[in-house]
Design brief:
By secondary structure, this protein is α/β, with parallel strands linked by helices. It is built from seven helices and eight strands; from the N terminus they run βαβαβαββαβαβαβα. An eight-stranded parallel sheet has the order 2-1-3-8-7-4-5-6, sandwiched between helices. Strand 7, helix 6 and strand 8 form a beta-alpha-beta unit.
Length: 272
């Protein structure tokens, strides 16, 4: 098994312009660690910060390029490591994961579930719909195929009533930050292959710069323990989203190295 590295630089429902350089910083750090230059998709453009429909239309060409890239990776039997800037890129990645790895579960690290539909959303934010479309709850134009039984939520603590009811009704595993993370995650994975989505706002505020801030998140040690559990399974890929390059638009760049250290049990699988 080889590893394919990807960096996304297009628009994807951005509120600001900090996640594109954040994704590139992750790609450059991975290149220093692994000696492989990531494949770059898209080019940076100013954030639109508008409603989900306009954001999706603007992002669609680059998101289709993401799907072509992931199709090629998985068709070649490789594992994917991607810096995806924003959660909305999962609209493109997860349908491809579902198609090529139909038995894999998706471990969704996030302070939000992103399981809203356009009709249920109160904010109209594209990122808040990012998991719902691949799960077949609405049609993004990028496909679906990821059943709700293949989703494991980890770290969510800012849920809308629609999402709370959906999680309850479908018994979607929801591992909260205060739970015994390793044991609960092992049980929920249940021996299946794993694809990982990491929204950095799953972490406690102040660890890395993110768009959203919600108290009571995971520590880097918590994240590493989860990654150690995941790495004992067949890992088909990981996508790292919502790492912003700095705390403020004019602030100094923040290194992603501590974050990547926490992810190392997964990132080092190409060396085993």
């Amino acid at each position: 098994m080889g590893i394919a590295y990807t960096v996304f630089q297009g628009r994807a429902g951005d509120h600001n312009d900090l996640a594109m350089p954040g994704a590139m910083a992750i790609g450059e750090a991975l290149e220093r660690r692994k000696g492989v230059r990531p494949f770059v998709i898209g080019r940076p453009e100013p954030a639109l910060n508008v409603g989900w429909r306009e954001e999706l239309d603007a992002a669609m060409p680059a998101l289709r390029d993401v799907q072509a890239r992931f199709d090629a990776i998985f068709a070649g039997g490789d594992m994917s490591v991607a810096a995806t800037s924003r959660c909305a890129v999962s609209l493109a990645t997860l349908p491809v994961v579902a198609r090529h790895h139909p038995s894999a579960c998706v471990v969704w690290f996030d302070s939000h579930a992103d399981l809203n539909t356009p009709d249920a959303s109160t904010s109209g934010y594209l990122g808040g719909l990012a998991l719902a479309a691949p799960a077949g709850l609405w049609d993004s134009g990028l496909g679906a195929g990821l059943g709700l039984k293949r989703i494991i939520l980890v770290g969510e603590r800012d849920l809308d009533p629609f999402e709370v009811e959906l999680i309850r009704r479908h018994a979607i595993p929801h591992i909260r930050p205060q739970d015994e993370l390793a044991g609960a995650l092992e049980k929920a994975i249940a021996g299946r292959p794993v694809y990982v989505h990491l929204d950095c706002d799953v972490l406690d505020p102040g660890i890395v710069p993110t768009d959203y801030v919600h108290e009571g998140g995971l520590s880097l040690d918590d994240l590493r323990r989860c990654c150690e559990v995941i790495a004992r399974h067949d890992v088909v890929g990981i996508e790292i989203a919502e790492f912003q390059n700095s705390w403020t638009p004019d602030g100094e760049a923040v290194s992603p190295e501590p974050l990547l250290d926490a992810l190392e049990p997964i990132l080092s699988l190409d060396q085993s």
